[in-house]
Amino acid sequence: IHSSGSHLLSLINEILDLSRVEAGKYELREALLHLQEVAADAMNMVELRASKKDIQLTLDARNDMPAVLGDEKAIRQIMLNLLSNAVKFTQKGGAVSLTLGWTQSGGQYFSVKDNGPGIPDDEIAVVLSPFGQGSIAIQTAEAGSGLGLPIVRAMVDLHQGKFKLQSKQREGTTVTGMLPRERVMDTLPAVEDATGRDTRKSKSQRTLQVEQTPASQTPLPAQQPQPESD
């Protein structure tokens, strides 16, 4: 009963959120936030679900990223939706990574990558439409409203950002949200030191091993800064 009630409440909230966005009634409560902190919260929220499927979660974040101006609740919901989708459709023993970094224009991006079954090209438009579900979701009877990705794209748009989905069958899916440079506080340009090296390339990496994974499993490669164009 509790599980069914929670699922129904989640469905209602997703419908209300998307309805507000489409009606132009969703108002961002903007404040300074660090994507690294929001990402860590979202990772913790899906850790238990991932552990039940022996999925390796990895958070890869640069340590030189300043605060951005945004709606913390909305950004957290975006990351949580993307991570939940990735864990839901990734097979047991798979891997899911969340990467944060700089865009080429000086903005910031967050990208969730999995090595799940992927999405067929002719179904990408379907999964991005409200209540749309691809054949994988139907075949596996995964519970969901089909509103996760539409809400993500709508909330990224509200932040004047860009949304990008790349998928290949039997290899996995990568979904990226890019925030514009105007939302980054004290944007740090790339600067070369005396040796000609880019001083902005240092990074920190936190890996969550939610279950013991086979030694043969290799972690997902870190994402490179995403381009601004589609």
Task: Describe this structure in a few short sentences.
This protein has 230 residues and is α+β, with helices and mostly antiparallel strands. The chain has helices at residues 2-22, 35-52, 72-89, 124-127, 135-140, 148-158, and strands spanning 30-33, 56-62, 68-71, 95-102, 108-114, 162-168, 172-179, 203-208.
Account of the 3D structure:
The chain is of the alpha+beta class and 230 residues long. It is built from six helices and eight strands. The strands form two sheets. It has a six-stranded mixed beta sheet, with helices on one face. Strand 6 (162-168) and strand 7 (172-179) form a beta hairpin. Helix 2 runs parallel beside helix 3. The longest helix has 21 residues, at 2-22. The protein is globular. It starts with a helix and ends in a 22-residue tail after the last strand. The relative contact order is 0.20.
Keywords:
single chain, 230 residues, alpha+beta, two-stranded antiparallel ribbon, 6 helices, globular
Poorly predicted spans: 188-223
Secondary-structure content class: alpha+beta
Q: Characterize the main sheet.
A: 6 strands, mixed
- Rg: 18 Å
Number of strands: 8
H-E order: HEHEEHEEHHHEEE
- Ends: how far apart? 44 Å
Shape call: globular
Helix content: 25-40%
